[in-house]
Amino acid sequence: MNWWLIPLVALIPLAVGAIYYNERVVGGIWMRATGLDADKLRSGNMLVIFGMTYLFSILVALILPSMVIHQSGIDSLLAHVGDEVGAEVFAALDTLDQEYGIMSLHRTFGHGFFHGVLVAIVFVGSLLAINALFERRRWNYVLIHVGYWAITLGLMGGVLCQFLVLS
Questions:
Q1: pLDDT for 11-49, tens place per residue?
Q2: Residues 144-153: tens digit of each pLDDT
Q3: Is residue 31 within 8 Å of residue 23, measured between CB atoms?
Q4: pTM attached to this predicted model
Q5: Are residues 85 and 59 in the same domain?
Q6: From CA 37, how far away is CA 43, in angstroms rounded?
Q7: 81: DSSP letter
């Protein structure tokens, strides 16, 4: 697997966040929805905030292939079979791949983008909505963050689906 792609893809949330949460884009609405202001935002330890964001983004980039690349589960599905049977099964998979290209089906940026957005809306959106309900936040708070994650996970999923080589 080309592991070098994971740290690069983990930069996407920082880049999208820098644009999306800018005051001229959605940042002003977000600050009103959260009750924050520019002074309060400047008071945080930016090295820790960006460093931890990058670390968490690496974790997201590591798990996202299982959600956007259909073929990523084949190895784990067959991990329990013995070496002899495993060799036969993987040989059969190689034959299927040579005949039908099964390992490259749906391996496009658009496909990964679609699944990334789907994960953002259904999974992340649900989690954010649950938290927002208990925090008594308005729905604009949820929609702002779901918008960010839809763009971010869409881009991350697209890049991973297009360029990540599975072994």
A1: 999 999 999 999 999 999 999 999 888 888 889 899 999
A2: 999 999 999 9
A3: yes
A4: 0.86
A5: no
A6: 10
A7: S
